Every structure is written in structure tokens, then in C-alpha cells.
Amino acid sequence: MTPLARHIATRIAAEGPISVAAYMEMCLQHPEHGYYTTRDPLGTGGDFTTAPEISQMFGELLGLAIAQAWLDQGAPAPFTLAELGPGRGTLMADLLRATARVPGFAKAARIVLVETSPALRARQAESLTGHAPDWIDTVAGLPEAPLFVIANEFFDALPIRQYQRDGAGWRERQVGLDDGGTLTFGLGPPGPVAALDHRLEDTRDGDTVELCAAATPILGSIATRIAANGGLALIVDYGDWRSLGDTLQAVRAHTPEDPLAHPGDADLTAHVDFEALARAATAAAPCLAQSRLTPQGVFLERLGITSRAQALARSLSGPALDAHIAAHRRLTHPDEMGTVFKTLALFPDQASLPPGFVP
Ligand code: SAH
Asked: How many other β-carbons are positioned within 10 Å of the β-carbon of residue 71?
């Protein structure tokens, strides 16, 4: 048993079963034993890897898309250039290098990183030496200014609650203890859930749906700032339009495992429900426009990843060239990250569509 498993079991023994969200929150953010609080989980030596860690092309292309949207909106200065959950700071470093020659962009940008993990803040400081970013714990601390914000694999790390359809109501999936005192999943009593009323139309008995309450105020803060002052939110994650099914997953050392097996020592994520993100944004700021939900592979192709890959390939050979070709495929191919990962943009309705999206 991990120290956190003992802590969670003690709490359940005293208070009864807890929601999947409460379990995820403790696993990921517990101040002493939380997964993100205590380590840098990224890269080949860590538990999982992400698009910016696979290739510099990802951050470069997203950066140029952001800079083009900034130019299209009249190059407001100063503006906030923010990232949610920046990991090792690799995406932001690649973005800043690629946009360095966009006149006025770097000078006008105030870099703000929204990050809870002390371990990852230290990594980000190393990656961004010379750029003097500010760190904040939550989006509530974002300045009132034009906001250009990126979130890659951030929303999948937020805690979700799960509900199983039961007649005209729902039973919440919970974490409890079996007779031997080991963590186990169970179901709470059936009842109505107001936030799921609209799902009674498209689900059947036994179906599981997920709700990410933590995402709603985050989208609200971002949406109101972009609607009031201009800007763009670029959200990249794995998931789909509207959640269906149990998508909670644990990964440790690049291998999937039971989400209850190693609390605090495995990464826990759930697919992102982009419809819920878009609804939360437009509920807070009705005049905000949203892009089509676009597969990552299609998005990167439209931004010119293949030309960029060919340009970089010219100075590579041998194993480095093989790795570069594999990275291009990994980011874009439908059998790899190209289709599972999606991109959504939120922007003021009078602004032009950001690069990489079509009407
Ligand atoms: N975007 C990075 C890292 C993804 S991992 C990349 O693509 O490589 C998830 C990131 O979100 C980590 O930096 C983690 O510490 C951060 N994070 C997770 N939950 C958070 C929360 N509630 N508030 C702020 N940051 C959070």
C-alpha cells in the first residue's frame, strides 16, 4: 500500500465512500503525497509523455498560430500570454523561440503560468530562463488584459465525477473499501442529478457519464476575459464532444494500470468533454465564438507541420532522422495522437477564425 492509499482508506473508514473526484483530487494534488505535487512525471524516464515533449514542432506551430491571432486582433499591447499546466515549460519555450521574430509580440507579452506543482514550477523556471514568467495557482489570478492562453493536456488532469444511469436517475460511482480494507469501486444510491438532465435523452440504463465540475469556473474566468479584452484560448486534449463511458485511466511508467492500484504514484486522467467546456465558456460569456472541434492531426497539418518537418529533416540523419520522422507521425497519424486528441478554440465573435480552423 502507498502512504496515500493508507490515508484514503482511513478517511473512507471514518466517513464512508468518496466520489471519484475526491479520490482523483487526493491522488493528484495531496500536499505531501500527491502525484503532481511531488514529482516531474513527464518524458521517457517518467510515467507519460506529451506532444511538446515528443517534438519541438508542436510548440512552434501553436506559438505561430497564437501570434497570427494576436496580429489579426490588432496586436494589442500589453497582453497576457498564459499557459495552463505547463509541465516542463517545453511548449512555452518552443512557442517563444518560434515567435521571437514576430515584430512586437515578445515585447508585448506578459507570460503567466498557471501551475500548482512546486516540482514542475522549478522545471518551468529552468526551461524559461531569461523570460521572467509569473506563476499563479488558479486562473482567477489572471490579469484583466487581452488573454492568449494555451492548455495542452491540462483539463484531462482535473477531477471528474462519474454517474451510472439507473432508470430516470443516476447512481454515482464511488471509491470505498472491500471486506479486506482494500480500495474498491462501488455505486451510491440512485437519485436525480440536475446537471445531467440533458443526458436523459441520449443515454440508456447502465451507461456511464462524467462531469468535471472544476473545469466550469476555469472556462468562466478565461471566457469573460477574452470576451471583454480580446484574445484566444487554444485547448488541446484527448476526449470528444460529450462524454460517454468510463474514461478514468491510470498510467505508471508508460503502462496502463488499475486506477486504484497505486494512489499518488500513478497519473490519473479522464477524457475531456469539449461540449461541457464550450457550454461553460458561452454560459459565462455568450458573445464568445467557438471553433469546430478539430482533430489534432488535421489541425497540425493545416498549420504546416509537414513543411516544418521537412525543413528540420534536412539537417538530420541516422537515428535522429528516424526519431524525427516517428515524432511527426506520432503527433499527426490517426492511429497515434492525430485523432484521439482534439483542438478547440474560443475567441471573440467579432475576431477572425484563428489559424488551423475552418468555418
Ligand atoms: N501541458 C504540459 C503538461 C501536462 S501534465 C505538456 O503538455 O507537457 C498536466 C499539467 O497540469 C502539469 O503541469 C500539472 O502540474 C498541472 N496541473 C494539474 N492539475 C492542475 C490544477 N488543478 N491547477 C494547475 N495546474 C495543474
From this structure: 13
- 210 bridge partner residues: 162
pTM over 0.85: yes
Distance CA 345, CA 343 (A): 7
Is residue 220 pLDDT above 80, yes or no? yes
Tell me the sheet residues that pair with 240: 273
Measured distance CA(161)–CA(180) in Å, rounded: 25
pLDDT for 44 equals 72
Residue nearest to atom 2 of ligand 1 (CA): 87
pLDDT band of 345, cuts 50, 70, 90? very high
Distance of CA 109 to the CA centre of its chain: 22
Q: What is the mean pLDDT of residues 175-188?
A: 96
Whether residue 36 has its Cβ less than 6 Å from ligand 1: yes
Domains of the chain as residue ranges with CATH: 51-159+211-348 (3.40.50.12710)
Q: Would you say the CB of residue 159 lies under 6 angstroms from ligand 1?
A: no
* Residue 170 Cβ contacting ligand 1 at under 6 Å: no
**Contact in structure between 46 and 88 (CB atoms under 8 Å):** no
d(CA 45, CA 99): 30
pLDDT interval class at 137 (50, 70, 90): very high
Is the pLDDT at 43 greater than 80, yes or no? no
Residue 120 beta carbon below 6 angstroms from any ligand 1 atom: yes
Q: 202 burial class (0-12, 13-18, 19+ CB within 10 angstroms)?
A: exposed
Check pLDDT > 90 for residue 337. yes
**Of 91, 112, 117, 296, which is best to mutate to test ligand 1, by the most ligand atoms within 8 angstroms of its C-beta?**
117
Q: Output the residue whose Cα is nearest ligand 1's atom 14.
A: 85
Please answer whether residues 78 and 110 qualify as being in contact, where contact means their C-beta atoms are separated by less than 8 angstroms.
yes
Encode pLDDT of 50-68 as tens digits: 999 999 999 999 999 999 9
